[in-house]
Specification:
The chain is of the alpha/beta class. The chain contains six helices and five strands, in the order βαβαβαβαβαα. 46% of the residues lie in helices and 19% in strands.
């Protein structure tokens, strides 16, 4: 069985992420969507909240499971018997960073990385942009699933209260 992992912080998950997950699900027997906390960024949502936000949006993909991880991705891959890491690329800037990471992963563990170009429809999306827009009341309903949109709106309202 060929297993792949789509790792990320998914803070929050966007339609761009879901596009990559769906396309990966067509290429592998099983795809694990693994939520990792990014130690360089303060998360808007907890890992548990992110897992909940992702769960209902991947139900339609019968071979996709969700999980969380911490530490090195290569250690996670070894523990879960993952064959391939799947990463979405939006632009050349993504490629520069992801290529270095792929080479490190292959050298450290033998786990290969497969790059998927994001669909043009979603190539501008990032969780950071979505969070920034939502924080200032921008409409992100076309960028994220409905449950994520609702959670972002609730979080923005709670921050407005905190800011007063």
């Amino acid at each position: 069985m060929k297993r792949a992992v789509c790792p990320g912080s998914f803070d929050p998950i966007t339609y761009g992420h879901l596009d990559i997950i769906e396309r990966a699900s067509k290429q592998f027997d099983e795809v694990i969507v693994a939520v990792f906390a990014n130690r360089k960024k303060a998360g808007l949502f907890s890992v548990e909240e992110r897992l909940e936000l992702i769960a209902s949006n991947v139900l339609k993909f019968k071979n996709v499971v969700i999980d969380s991880g911490s530490g090195l991705l290569v250690d996670y891959c070894k523990a879960k018997n993952v064959d391939v890491i799947v990463k979405g690329l939006r632009a050349v800037t993504d490629f520069d960073y992801e290529l270095q990471m792929a080479q490190v992963h292959t050298q450290a563990s033998g786990v290969e990385t497969m790059f998927m170009a994001t669909s043009p429809t979603h190539s501008f999306l990032s969780s950071s942009i979505v969070k920034e827009l939502a924080y200032y009341g921008g409409d992100v309903s076309t960028m994220v699933p409905a449950n994520v949109h609702t959670a972002l709106q609730a979080r923005a309202v709670s921050r407005e209260i905190e800011d007063k």
